[in-house]
């Protein structure tokens, strides 16, 4: 009997130590994510000449990085904000890739680009909704840049620069994705939001 009590106590201590280790490792993972995102932002900021949209995206990403550093404890909020930051950096990368030389169009490129732009058009239309929920004080600027990127993509499509069109429209959609993640972070309470 004494052996079973000692065994039970040992198991309880091991379980408590394991839980503490998981919590510690989650905090360490979040710190590693902050470092990774900081490096990614630094790399994106050193790329040649930046467009107005890229400058905006990098400034917003830097602000979100500071927000992450201040709020490492809340798991869900950390996840949403870090993913929003990542979306902004990916959008900047898409803009950069859109500058690469265009290859000669192949059959089907026009239709593929048209389908993608249609999908991104509807995503960009959601920007104002997510901007209103995001709580970002400069949310209208996010919408403006998302729409500008889409419009640049549409102009590239008209000029038969189908790869460029897809890249710019995808960047626009990523900006909207970042707004959506920030809106999710803001309404992260235990109660789901009600429909108006």
Query: What is the number of helices?
Result: 7
Tell me the structural class. mainly alpha
Roughly how many Å apart are the termini?
Answer: 61 Å
**Uncertain regions spanning at least 5 consecutive residues:** none
Approximately how much helix is present in the residues? over 70%
Strand count, sense and closure of the main sheet? Answer: none
Topology as a string of helices (H) and strands (E) = HHHHHHH
Beta content: under 5%
Give the beta-strand count.
0
Whole-number total of structural domains: 1
Rg over CA atoms, rounded to whole Å, is: 22 Å
Provide a descriptive summary of the structure in words.
The chain contains 7 helices and no strands. It has 196 residues and is an all-alpha fold. The protein has one domain (13-186). Helix 5 (127-134) runs antiparallel to helix 6 (139-158) and helix 6 (139-158) runs antiparallel to helix 7 (162-186).
Which SSEs are present, and which pair or pack?
Blueprint: H1 2-45, H2 52-70, H3 75-98, H4 109-125, H5 127-134, H6 139-158, H7 162-186
């Amino acid at each position: 009997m004494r052996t079973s009590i000692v065994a039970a106590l040992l198991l309880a201590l091991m379980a408590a130590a394991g839980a503490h280790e998981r919590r510690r490792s989650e905090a360490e993972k979040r710190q590693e994510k902050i470092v990774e995102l900081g490096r990614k932002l630094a790399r994106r900021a050193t790329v040649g000449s930046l467009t107005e949209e890229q400058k905006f995206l990098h400034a917003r990403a830097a602000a979100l990085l500071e927000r992450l550093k201040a709020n490492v404890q809340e798991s869900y909020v950390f996840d949403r904000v870090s993913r929003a930051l990542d979306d902004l950096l990916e959008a900047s990368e898409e803009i950069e890739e859109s500058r690469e030389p265009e290859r000669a169009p192949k059959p089907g490129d026009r239709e593929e680009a048209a389908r993608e732009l249609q999908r991104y058009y509807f995503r960009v239309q959601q920007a104002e909704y997510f901007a209103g929920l995001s709580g970002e004080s400069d949310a209208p600027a996010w919408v403006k840049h998302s729409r500008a990127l889409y419009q640049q993509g549409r102009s590239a499509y008209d000029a038969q620069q189908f790869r460029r069109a897809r890249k710019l429209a995808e960047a626009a959609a990523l900006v909207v994705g970042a707004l959506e993640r920030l809106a999710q972070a803001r309404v992260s309470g235990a109660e789901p939001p009600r429909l108006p």
